[in-house]
Amino acid sequence: xxxxxxxxxxxxxxxxxxxxxxxxxxxxxxxxxxxxxxxxxxxxxxxxxxxxxxxxxxxxxxxxxxxxxxxxxxxxxxxxxxxxxxxxxxxxxxxxxxxxxxxxxxxxxxxxxxxxxxxxxxxxxxxxxxxxxxxx
Length: 136
Prior knowledge:
Elements: H1 3-10, H2 14-22, E1 29-30, E2 36-37, H3 42-54, H4 59-65, H5 77-111, H6 113-120, E3 124-128, E4 131-135
Antiparallel strand pairs: 1-2, 3-4
């Protein structure tokens, strides 16, 4: 299938598909006109890539762990398990940070200045988007 059809079937933009191919996550052949032609399994491959992006892995990590997704006997599985464990630890840490930030917001909303005095006396970490920042 050509890139337009792959884009429609996978929900990935043609630009993303070309990028995934450039980093080795997808492969294609060229037809007589020079157009990229992808195998049918490219739709499933993109679904795996999207899943790994959703759980917070970056492209470099995905290149390393993708062969292991759906193939637990792949040689890179130990590396993939380590990277998954690291990501789980990071998410757990973010959940604790977010829970503390949520608690402080409730305090500020209900207690106003009294809660603000408590906040200024300790270092709190908060998450904004994918970025963790310090509130001092």
